[in-house]
Specification:
alpha/beta; two-stranded antiparallel ribbon; 7-stranded mixed beta sheet; 184 residues
């Protein structure tokens, strides 16, 4: 199994889920061949591209034009197909069914996204999100409970990487949260 390093992605001024967090997020999503993933707030498409490389059919929604362009460039670079949609959640979300959903950005519309997921995320589907703020983390966990998601997990990831002279440079701490829709 190949994992893409951050420096391999075509990058711009759009946020990207970094390697360490991306690998853990993919693990929480349990992406497998044949999965159907909706990536909301896809940024550069790093989660979408990794999921497609692991055999998932992927829809990626991103509100920034630069992000959509980067997703297309990364699709071409890695030879995968992702349905990239320019728009905002939930208004521009596709009318499809899927079994995995990742929220990398919500535009402040978390509750509206949960309402959309009620009709579109399949029963026992996995919902995973990354947050940098405690307020969004708390709101997401409360929404998971309100909408009766099961097997709720949360993790704080703090990573640092050694630079060329041996100094450790810290990345932002990231909360990874996961829940499973419906009954056990």
């Amino acid at each position: 199994m190949k994992w893409i390093k951050d420096e391999e992605f075509v990058r711009g001024n759009i946020p990207m889920t970094k390697f360490d967090v991306r690998v853990l997020t993919m693990g929480y999503l349990a992406i497998e061949e044949g999965d159907e993933l909706l990536d909301i707030g896809a940024g550069t498409g790093s989660i979408s591209i990794e999921a497609a490389l692991h055999g998932a059919k992927v829809w990626a929604i991103e509100r920034e034009e630069e992000g959509v362009e980067l997703i297309h460039k990364n699709m071409d670079k890695f030879g995968v197909c992702v349905e990239a949609i320019k728009g905002e959640a939930p208004l521009s979300l596709p009318n499809i069914q899927f079994n995995k959903c990742f929220v990398g950005g919500s535009g402040g519309k978390l509750e509206e996204i949960f309402i959309y997921l009620e009709q579109h995320l399949k029963e026992k589907g996995i919902l995973c999100a990354n947050f940098i703020t405690i307020n969004n983390l708390n709101q997401f966990i409360n929404l998971l409970k309100k909408y009766q998601y099961k097997n709720i997990e949360a993790q704080l990831v703090q990573t640092s990487h050694m630079d060329k002279i041996g100094l450790l440079k810290a990345n932002n701490p990231i909360f990874i949260v996961k829940g499973v829709k419906g009954n056990d």
